[in-house]
Amino acid sequence: MSAEMDALVANATSKLEALEAALYGLKQVRGQFTTDDGAVSVEVNSDGALVGLSLSEAVTSMAPSDVGQLIIWACRQASENAGAQRSKVVATLNESFAPATSDANGSVGGGPDSA
Question: If DSSP codes are grouped into helix, strand and coil, which group holds residue 103?
Answer without folding.
Answer: coil
